[in-house]
Inverse folding.
């Protein structure tokens, strides 16, 4: 999101509760539409003029904490197995697009004409572009991280294989060998 964590980041706190990020809103400059609503590259963390969230405010401070970053990577990889799996992202885009009828899409195109090649086919072209951007983006993020080990089940044995160049650490008691400071 072009202006995430800096201009459109909000926090809330219930009385007696913890500070939480949210509510989530303002995605007008996200999912590839950061520079004047033209398609932006999916293969970089931020675009020129956008927020470098690796350095912005306290977000920049916590990204330098290896414990936080490992939790962030673990969470990303967990979500990629479910809600952020490519098939689920494409299905979500399709289901949301289905709530917009052809008449509404035509009115929107007439009111907000775009001279952007990626959207030449109107609503259909925009949807196809969005789904393509989603899938390329999540694959690119995956490539920026050390992949989790693969697991094969041999019936009575499990075999864990680390990604190329990675080390595999394990414990026999179920604890995480990457515990705080570990």
């Amino acid at each position: 999101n072009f202006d995430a964590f800096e201009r459109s980041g909000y926090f809330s706190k219930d009385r007696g509760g913890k500070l939480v990020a949210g509510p989530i809103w303002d995605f007008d400059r996200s999912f590839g539409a950061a520079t004047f609503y033209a398609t932006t590259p999916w293969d970089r963390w931020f675009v020129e003029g956008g927020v470098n969230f690796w350095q912005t405010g306290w977000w920049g401070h916590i990204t330098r904490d290896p414990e936080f970053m490992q939790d962030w990577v673990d969470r990303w990889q967990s979500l990629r197995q479910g809600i952020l799996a490519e098939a689920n992202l494409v299905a979500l885009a399709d289901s949301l697009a289905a709530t917009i009828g052809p008449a509404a899409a035509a009115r929107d195109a007439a009111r907000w004409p775009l001279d952007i090649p990626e959207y030449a086919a109107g609503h259909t072209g925009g949807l196809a572009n969005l789904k393509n951007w989603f899938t390329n983006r999540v694959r690119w993020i995956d490539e920026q991280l050390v992949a989790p080990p693969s697991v094969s089940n041999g019936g009575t044995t499990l075999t864990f294989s680390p990604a190329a160049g990675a080390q595999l650490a394990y414990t026999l008691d179920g604890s995480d060998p990457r515990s705080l400071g570990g």
About this structure: The longest strand covers residues 150-153. The two ends are 33 Å apart (CA to CA).
